[in-house]
Amino acid sequence: MGSAAELFAAALMLLGYPLLTLAALLPNLYAFAAVAAITYLADHYLHRKGSYLIERLGRTRAGLPVRFLIRQLLLILLLARISPSGDLTFYGAIACFIAFYAIQVPHGALTGLIGRRRTLPVAARNVDLASHIRIPGAPPRWLVHRSGEKMLHLDLAAIVGLLVSAATDSSPAGLIGMAVTLVLSAFYLLALVPYVRSRRLPPKGDKVRAALDAWLRQYRPETVLYFSGSDDSAYQVNMWLETMERLETRPLVILRERVIMQNLAPTTVPVVCVPGSVHLMNMDLSTVRVALYPANVGKNIHLLRLPTMKHVFIGHGDSDKAASVNPFTKVYDEVWTAGRAGRDRYHVADVGVRDEDIVEVGRPQLVTIQGPRDLPEGVLPTVLYAPTWEGWDDNPGNTSLLLAGENIVKRLVKADPPVRVLYKPHPFTGTRSARARAAHQRITALIEKAAEERAAKPGFSTDTTARSEAKAELARIEARLAELATVGGDKGDEAVITRDGLVDMARHEEIARLRARWNDVYWRAAGTWQHRVITGPEPRLYDCFNVSDALVSDISSVVSDFIASGKPYAVTDSAGLGAEEFKRQNTAVRAAVILSNGAEELDELLAAVRDPAADRLAEDRKELRQYLLGPDSPTSIERFGAAVRDLARRAERRNTGRSARAAASTVPAPRLAPAPETDAATTS
Known about the structure:
This protein is an alpha/beta fold.
């Protein structure tokens, strides 16, 4: 349901309606007015916060229109109790609210029509659709954003006027208030009418799809990055955008969910979002030769059906988790892994992926990961705790959060000599398991309490001025990034963003510079000694790697990626397999400090961080890095690009061969000479 403030507002709103009923029955005019004001404010606050409770109330037939209607009916009840015989104000209130709700019907129809027509069958970035179709500007945001809520709040004038009339025992205030409500409602309705005229609406779906196909024929994409997932999974496609930008072939990103488009990182690669499966299957992708898939999801089948391209599973991380050897993976033409470890993993799992279909391409994203730091005098070592999520089942080995998380954090925040602790949980943490969500909340509380205690110590508060300056600069950078991120200004909706979403290289480069600057300033603002809980997409995981001196994690791609840094790391054996068996089953932990659920072994990790001479696993990490991630030369992006080119050539050969075979099969068979006639006597 959200924060404590949201819970409090929800309680006020829900309690308000029984109190309104009581105030109307007594009757108590002033109590009714006070409680009505509270319900208005609480409702508005919850809508502005997007509270989960609002959604649940809508599903249980207690949505916003119903709540407003109940409040209006209770006001009529109050007026009836104050003046049982009824008067002009009383009957006027009934007529006013009937007319008010009558206006809601065409208003809802108009806003629905505008919303549907302005929702294109495809959304796009860096795609020039404006050259093929005309997409008119959007209605003003104030007119269509949360329009139903705004329309319903126009009853405020009538409510206030009627309460004043009841308090003063005179009709004018009530009549004026009702007139204001009805006039404003009518004006709101009329203001929408121009935007349903044909010249103010985008073309219909078939014309938009035809325009996209025309653009595709001009652009002739060769390599596609295809992705489908929830809003929390946007990081899985974002991690591949820079790699796509560096390919020598013409790239295209295809997304299936609009929410992923909204969370997509800035890129120069053309992006199209095609929610409809029929629309996707009718797109002109005849020039595409290679399709890359970062995730195994059901919607992949809509592109896998095309034989004119080769299909490759590239994943969104390389780890020893069972998901990394999903049997579904055998549907692809090839599976690309980082290093030899990925190939061996499929061989051991025996899930139907053939060895000749596996290509080792490295991990192009890891180029930004830095090696061990030389810590200046007085700067504390930093330990990053980055557990994975609870997974789809209750296997205790999925995550360390449940059994070991609190023990790990308690030992780290009490370490002597002290260290800084960064806690960055997986984005999916707590989405399936209430126990995992509760463990995450307890760990967050532990770190925040330790941070408060450390901030109160004199030795840790000497850089207050520098941190304040960094926070001010951070706010300026964020304001500028928000400004740059707004395409189309306040008048922009998805259709306008699609129309105007061509990449502006100067803007794109400025965003890149500001993001790099933001990362630097963020860590200065946080302080080099302060514990921190890091959720959300920023700072990114690799940014956390670069300011850390050691990692504590679980079996996940986080560990495999961190190995690229060469820094010490520890992995938790949450299932209690024992160190030897745990290493046998999981390649990535063979150069790790193995933690039990009690986390007693953390001392060995901390000793390696403080003194390189005590780091007995340094050489093992170098060997493991080669095995997991492949050689340093040629670079990963070079190997990745070569694999794309090779597969594209194979796809082209397949298409050429099929065309030749199809042409051969249509050549008419040679005419056979007629059989000679035979004498009937001879054949008898």
